Amino acid sequence: MRTGIATVTISGTLEEKIEAIAAAGFDGIEIFEQDFIADIRSPKAVGQRIRNAGLQVMLFQPFRDFEGLPNPMRAKAFDRAERKFDVMQELGCDLILMCSSCHPAALGGIDRAAEDFAGLGERAAARDIRVGYEALAWGRHVNDHRDAWEIVRRADHPNVGLVLDSFHTLARRIDPDSIRRIPGDKIFFVQLADAPAIDMDLLYWSRHFRNMPGEGDLPVTAFMQAVMATGYDGPISLEIFNDQFRGGSPETIARDGHRSIVALMDDVRHSEPDTGPGLPQLPRPVTVRDTAFIEFAAQGQELSKLETLLDTLGFRRAGRHKSKSVQLWRQGDVRVILNAETEGHAGSAWNARGTTVCDIGLNVGSALDTVTRATALGAKPFTQPLGPGELPIPAIRGLGGSVMHFIDDGDLANVWNVEFLSDDKTAPGVGLTRVDHIAQTMTYDEMLSWSLFYTSLFDMVKAPMVDVIDPDGLVRSRAISTPDGSFRITLNGAETHRTLAGSFLTEGFGGSVQHIALATDDIFATATALRDRGFEALPLSQNYFDDLAARFDIAPDVLARMRAENILYDADDKGEFLQLYSRPFAGQLFLEIVERRGAYAGYGAPNAPFRIAAQKRFQRPKGMPAI
Ligand SMILES: O=C(O)c1ccc(O)c(O)c1
Ligand SMILES: [Mg+2]
């Protein structure tokens, strides 16, 4: 498999793009003409620079408005093509992409276009150049790869072939299986892009909202299965026009791109087994059973406060680490680790952010397979020196400097007995059973990257994006979960620093966990037990409960209890959801306690604006009452 990426996908100067693309592990590059024209180097020097970086110049693009023109425009179009061939020969590139004409004077007619391409094929052949024809979804006469293929077929020239671009096919909802009828050797190049399901003008959608395979909602895997079934063995290349990518970090975008291709082709290899020899072999997306532990870095006063909070929440200290300043607290299946080490990862996390979730442990099918797959997808394994008697638990760097550890049924499952001395501090518990979800806050621009990280590594599915209204701006939220809901993450992308999520980012050091939701089977019993232990819930507005009475049929005595305990409520056709929030702690972290009834699979999004407003009352400067 040879992978490529169009320069238009990456931000920066051509030089920065080349460096990032090479570092991410691509084999080649599509030169988007604008990037080349803006560069001050000669075509020869640019070509040499790209090859020195270990990359092939796979494609030169786009050439516009070639076919179907009346003379004298037709002759001019051929001359224009010859000038581009000159540049390509200097660059050392033998394939040009011609996109279907949008020219108002283009006449249409399959045979006329075929004749133009046959003529161009002759001229290209004289220079050992090949021409690839791509149907733009908004092309004037040709906007469907099936018509583009018919033109290529009738042009009947060895130097004229087809370029397929998943966006143009899938955005028009053309059945990708129609690709299976095209001979693989007549497909000269394949471009991949995904996109979010938004109903909008095709050209605008394509130029601003494309994203990496797996980041959007288009059936890119089915498209690629069809391509591989033809026997196509040319480059697989990303061509993503995206407003955020244009302003993002070249390294991150290139790395995400490579990750998306590796994950996609792994999927294709498994579903289209006879095709794609030479595709990388890697372990399948990892099954996450549940959250094994959540680890906080905390020291001094902050550590004492966190211990008090856990105690109030009914956790008991179940163990102390044999050689490190690390405690294990438990309730139900929830394990919270408090790490007060001044060195190593927890020490650096504390130095950078203060109290923070520095590590998440997951119970997985195979810890080794998890790290193998993560590494193949470009994640970095994480290690630090082991203390006496410590187990080598496999780990990787997550995003934003975080760490994830993986525990499976092997020897690693004994970590709690092996590394910790058990403590006999007892607590009755308040009915918390497990981690329901972990909520991570990041900038809006980082959301696609984080979502791809989780969905490519783990067997997890994305829920649709929801808009959360903060009094000071919009926060976009997307949940990602295992198919059975045993492990759930919510990604919250802040667009401004004035939102609750945005100010968390400003105070911290980039994206990280902002809240953790713990599950109970009986939120009213838990609320009572918590109150007895001195827990203070987040106070909500009385208007919220009045509105609940209007929206739902809740028995008056139940509603009165919700009002008294500050319990939020949501319901859909699958079930019900009840939520109780803590007040902020350690700056802007908070906890949520939830009860899911029936098959409710959401996160109480309709309640978010009222919860956020309540939280912000705790942040407002003097003079603004909290309640
Ligand atoms: O938006 C465009 O014009 C454009 C240009 C070249 C392509 O390959 C493409 O898919 C779109
Ligand atoms: Mg394209």
Can you give a write-up of this model?
It contains 21 helices and 25 strands. It has 627 residues and is an alpha/beta fold. The protein has 3 domains: 60-271, TIM Barrel, CATH 3.20.20.150; 288-422, 2,3-Dihydroxybiphenyl 1,2-Dioxygenase, domain 1 (Roll), CATH 3.10.180.10; 432-619, 2,3-Dihydroxybiphenyl 1,2-Dioxygenase, domain 1, CATH 3.10.180. The longest helix is centred in the middle third of the chain and has 22 residues, at 250-271. Residues 622-627 have low confidence and may be disordered. 3,4-dihydroxybenzoic acid binds at residues 61-62, 97, 99, 134, 136, 165, 191, 206-207, 239.
What are the defining features of this structure?
about 625 residues, alpha/beta, TIM Barrel, 2,3-Dihydroxybiphenyl 1,2-Dioxygenase, domain 1, 3 domains, 9-stranded mixed sheet, 8-stranded parallel β-barrel, 25 strands, elongated, disordered C terminus, binds 3,4-dihydroxybenzoic acid, binds magnesium ion, 3-dehydroshikimate dehydratase activity
Largest sheet: 9 strands, mixed
- CATH level-1 class of the largest domain: Alpha Beta
CATH fold name of the largest domain: TIM Barrel
Number of structural units classed as domains:
3
Q: Please give the alpha-carbon distance between the first and last residues.
A: 61 Å
- Poorly predicted runs of 5 or more residues: 622-627
What would you report as the Rg, rounded to the nearest angstrom?
28 Å
Organism: Thalassococcus profundi
Function: Catalyzes the conversion of 3-dehydroshikimate to protocatechuate (3,4-dihydroxybenzoate), a common intermediate of quinate and shikimate degradation pathways.
Cofactor: a divalent metal cation
Enzyme class: lyase
